[in-house]
Amino acid sequence: MSTTVSSPRPGSPKPGGAGAAAPATVLAAKPVSWKTPVLLAVFALVSLVFFGFLAPRQTASFGISTGGDFFQLPALEINAFAGGIVLSVLLVALAGYAVFLKTKGQPAPGWLPVTFIVIFVAAFLIWVVGGARTPAISLAGLIAGSVTLAVPLVFGSLSGVLCERVGVVNIAIEGQLLGGAFTAAIVASMTKNAFIGLLAAAIAGAVVSMVLALFSIKYLVNQIIVGVVLNVLVSGVTGFLFSTVMQANKAQFNSPPGLDVIDIPVLSSIPIIGPILFRQSLVGYLMYVAVAVVWVGLFKTRWGLRVRAVGEHPQAADTLGINVNATRFWNVTLGGAVAGIGGSFFTLVAIDSFTKEISGGRGFIALAALIFGRWNPVGAFFAALLFGFADNLQSIVTIIGTPVPSQFMAMLPYLVTVLAVAGLVGKSRGPAASGIPYVKG
Amino acid sequence: MVRVLKLELRGITKRFGTLLANDHIDVVVEPGQIHCLLGENGAGKSTLMNVLYGLYEPTEGDILIDDKPVAFRGPGDAMAAGIGMVHQHFMLVPVFTVAENVALGAEPTKAAGFLNLDQTRQRIKEISDQYGFNVDPDALVEDLPVGVQQRVEIIKALVRDARVLILDEPTAVLTPQETDELLDIMRQLKSRGTSIVFISHKLREVKAVSDTITVIRRGKVVGTADPAASTTELASMMVGRAVSLTLDKAPAQPKETTFEVRDLTVVAPNGQHVVDHLSFHIRRGEILAIAGVQGNGQTELTEAILGLQERVTGSIVLDGKELVGRSVKEVLEAGVGFVPEDRKVDGLVGTFSVAENLVLDLYDKPPFAKGISMSPAKVMENAKQRIGEFDVRTPSAAAAAGTLSGGNQQKLVMARELSRPLRLFIASQPTRGVDVGSIEFLHRRIVAERDQGTPVMIISTELDEVMELADRIAVLYKGKLVGTVPAGTSRDVLGLMMAGIPPEEHTPEEQTPDGHSPVHHAQTPQAGTPAPASNAEGADHA
Prior knowledge:
Distance between the termini of chain A: 36 Å
Oligomer: heterodimer
Number of helices of chain B: 17
């Protein structure tokens, strides 16, 4: 539609500015911002200086195979200095390419920042491991551990996706995770059955969500406030019951049977992907299923179309005979159940008992993953993996002993969260009606 | 083969708290007719249709289809009964495709709830071909022009087999050409057996297309009218008293140019150039009307002049002073009076009293302020004077501004803005949602300001208002100036300009009576230009 007429206009424009109908000029669609090239250049230089020139003169060793694999691959041995230099030069080249594109007025292609991040992380890894007392880590263990740590995050962000897509902001993910963790522990302990505990966790998460849904949909209370209050409430209630009931009789109330890791025969012995995909607990496998089901459900089914319509334009959905508030209520409830299952991971898989604040703020990281993943279940899954990776990396690196103080490494997951949400999300757009209660008329 | 149905509303009453929006309304829509509900903004037309569509439950009264009473508990029931509605604000999900929007709520599915949109695409193609809609089922709705979005809404109703189609103020967002196309579509729908309830306050359109007209005023049916009745008759019925539809104004006596905009560009947060290298000027004692379909940069232009826009380049000069880069306060102090397009949001503080609203821009200056204290007595005194002068109908000067009617709120804003000596007066949508009686008054005040020698800029999406007030007309399209033409330019030419076609491409015979017009004739008259029925009768504003 941007056809431009630059027909020569007879008659000279008057000095008073009477030539009002100035011929329109063609403009470039959108000015390309300097933000990305500059950011990349800064990080490339940081990498060159610290991971390259200031790199430790040790050899970093990355184990690839684990014990149960079909065949053993030799560990990757990389000279930290050489590796750092090579990767940093690659980063500088990528940053240079982005600058070059900018001068030609083109934006950087999507693969560029992604490749940049992967190489930067690799350079960082080599530097950290190379400087450690025992310069060796297991790459397979690092990644498999990341997936494990990401499980509750994935469930939490799926809960967020389900709620926000239908138009309710779910700040209460933390409370749902915590409620799920507590209920799973106490129910599984009392029934001596982990599966019943899992089911109970889902119900607990759903109950927390129903409170959120009731107040935000029926009584139109600000959703953020209800969510925050719920987090505090669940934290208080579980903390109180933990000290009064669980600690008094640990054997009866706080020693749940765990959900064991189930190795899928044959598949679990494939190097690298075996431990990641096929050595999971039941909750871990459920995670993969949940991501797929939510994605297919949201984008391929009638249910999903209606959910998204309600979250984007509730009036439109209403005029087509869709019950907006009922749709919202049940989806928020479902979201809570999903987060509850995620919470059971803490007490049935990761640790064999409940402690106060066991979810440790992961509900909020899940919220970040949801935004970083652009309200898409698959995106949220990968975003949660990234946070899980950062989390796992800091604990492994602390164990092998690096020159970086462990307190700094402990900041890593949160630093990644801030950078990801503030810097990399860009112009992602959430559901238009998210957070806005629907009132008829 | 086509199912036709007779629709009857009997004694419909709808109350919101103490407000009586519909008072025992009786309407009969005969099969295969275009039935117009004519009434001013706020007369209760939309409420009535929302009752009919099942969105509101009537306090009293019955809906009858083919003489049998029905009860709608929601829009789903109404659709099932064969009633479809195109709302004034489109009910389309912007990020969905056309097919997804059409399917929503009545989705064809395969096993296990999986969507089968192929079926919907097929139906859209059929209807689109049948009526010549030219709609792509896979286009994203947010990328479509409003005229096409409206067709998507009509398709939505037709897919659901609507036999009665309610169109609520369908022309408010359309260019005159798009309006004529819509009227054609309505006639076509009628010829295929679909009855239409057409809600409007625009007399020209109502007369052009209706079979029957029911006039509604203050929630009551005041009578039916013949489409052959004159515009003045219809307007008097709608307003309830004789109204003069034409404004008597003396020809402009323009003096020197004191306000000039040069090469003004405003960049929106998304990087789009919402105002694009705009240049124009206004002389003292003339009214420049900025015409254009809503959303073509008018809002951003006024905000840029006021100093409310961040990314502005170019120059805005008033009395030799540059305004770009100044704060709003500085701009106001330079003598700019401004009536914003949305009075409730930007023009008034609804919970403040009428008196307080009248000094919103002067509260810190004498005589209203002394040092850090305000003088309530002076504020009240000022209020009494302005209320009298502008005929603001309010219970008292202490009443909350939000409780006044639209017309009185607008008078209040206008009273405040015109209460100090101005060097430039800008009024954006000065009569939107204002009753016809108040329109006359407001228009006269605007012309009076012009006659005092103030440069006046009017922004209006209502072509009738533009044609009535303007001494010169500038047309905006996608943030660019399509052209500036003299008053008296025909509706057809302006309509094409509003669609982005510059005047020299279609006005071989148009004269430019004054030498100030920058419009020049094209060498080749453009063939094939649609020539919709021109409007010979008086202006039908409202």
